[in-house]
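Practice problem: predict the structure.
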Amino acid sequence: INAGPTREPIDPVRYISNHSSGKMGIALADAAAGYGAGVTLVLGPSDLQPQNNSVKVVHVTTSEDMAKECISWFPLCDIAILSAAVADFTPVRTEDRKISKSRGGLVIELKPTTDIAEALGRVKKNSQILAGFALETDNELENAEKKLKRKNLDLIVLNSLKEKGAGFGYDTNKITIIDKYNNINKFELKSKSEAARDILDKIITMIR
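Answer:
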């Protein structure tokens, strides 16, 4: 399982990131461990930690770090759940020293980061299950279905920022699960712990 944000450094002081707290992914890790699974959590910068001591936590900071860890661990796992809010872009150049405001305007050139779900989808075995997340603001269902197919996922968990009480920072979430067989399961607003169990229960039904 991966969770949390990433931080893409601009200079030794500043970075590009997002509002992810890691709550959903950590809830998944705790729930999976509670189901008896051996869980490795690749966790970006977060103030939170799993409650279940059996969860192995691998701390990372950048999108590159997270991609390397996820790609490394994937061959060893039966199920991968990608809930992290990984940066889509990272600076082409990171300055060694703090950029001074006195230099005036600043233009930062960005390059795409590794799409972890797509990378894992390319090497996924028939015996493995790969679950992704999609946080959308427009054309939610259509965009999630496209990601599901393009990245060779077995299922995708859709979150909408339009839903009250769902998304970054909340203790609750309202999810829709879409699987590769075009089954769509919509859930009411629940605690993230309950949503985590809904996701895991769906995955269990897909185990070959």
